[in-house]
Design brief:
279 residues; alpha/beta; globular; Rossmann fold; 8 strands; binds S-adenosylmethionine
Length: 279
């Protein structure tokens, strides 16, 4: 199993994602919406606005982007994409993206992982990003224009029903998004549909090793922060296998908040999972 490096582990554990500095982390989340879908969009519109108002990439401190990505990767994206980073892992960094591949990013936010994937696929490949929050889409498209990223396309849509044909992608990535989906089975079915035979998923997500209490699951602020919808790790892996994927492997497994008093909260982890659609 690969591990995130020491710096990443200590920063995550100290509360990078999960401590309130990014989209994940319920501290200070204020929402007007009561409906979950609207609340998710409200929250990530706020994160998109944070990204849009970022002028300089913060590599010196514990911004979400600097805790997950190397300085050299961040130099290839815009400050606005880095400023909107709300992931909990670095799926592109460990997905071994090949030149010429078609990559799909589910819940692409400000586009950070799409741009990193596009650097790896080169002009012969193509990267699609799908997100349901219009503010995020606007930010991602504006970032693509600034970077002149011709091989990246951002689509408005839900990860449960992606507006792309069957067998589109060689690789599907996602970074801290499936935890936000109320019906994870639907998402994995959709990933299966969209992958070419032999294609792979590499997803970073928040999971737990202790069942979450019902009040955390019912708490909208916890849910929009990628916590309330965190699946039990064993159930998450079972869902992937039950969908038909094979060679499922945990590539990274990092505690998010191990100092927390509540055992369920202390059990939260950021993981990256890889699995293959059979040939
Ligand atoms: C925690 S952020 C992660 C963004 C990006 N992956 C990153 O690493 O910065 C979650 C993103 O997923 C989007 N999202 C959440 N649920 C979604 C759904 N069901 N369908 C499409 N997008 C969704 C949100 O709008 C938001 O941009």
């Amino acid at each position: 199993m690969k591990q995130l490096d020491e710096v990443q582990i200590s920063q995550l554990d100290a509360g990078g994602c999960g401590g309130g500095s990014c989209g994940c982390g319920s501290d200070g989340v204020e929402l007007k919406s009561t409906n979950l879908n609207d609340a998710i969009q409200e929250r990530y519109s706020q994160v998109a606005q944070r990204g849009a108002s970022t002028d300089v990439i913060d590599t010196s401190c514990c911004s979400n982007a600097s805790s997950l990505y190397s300085e050299s990767s961040l130099e290839t994206v815009t400050p606005q994409a880095a400023g909107a980073s709300a992931g909990c892992g670095n799926p592109v960094g460990i997905a071994d993206v090949n030149e010429g591949e078609t990559v799909l990013d589910l819940g692409s936010g400000g586009g950070i992982d799409c741009f990193l994937a596009a650097n790896a696929t080169g002009p012969e490949g193509h990267v699609y990003g799908v997100d349901m929050t219009p503010e995020m889409l606007k930010l991602a498209r504006s970032n693509a224009e600034k970077l002149d990223a011709q091989n990246v396309t951002f689509l408005l849509g839900k990860i449960e029903a992606v507006p792309l044909p069957d067998a589109t992608a060689d690789l599907i990535i996602s970074n801290c998004v499936i935890a936000l989906a109320p019906d994870k089975r639907m998402v994995f079915d959709e990933i299966y549909r969209l992958l070419k035979p032999g294609g792979r998923l590499v997803v970073s997500d928040i999971v737990s090793t202790v069942e979450l209490p019902e009040e955390a699951r019912q708490d909208t602020a916890e849910w929009v922060s990628c916590i309330g919808g965190a699946d039990l790790l064993s159930r998450y892996l079972d869902r992937i296998n039950d969908t038909g994927f094979e060679n499922t492997e945990l590539l990274t497994d990092t505690p998010l908040n191990s100092e927390a008093d509540d055992p369920w909260r202390a059990s939260l982890r950021s993981v990256t999972v890889r699995a293959f659609k059979p040939e």
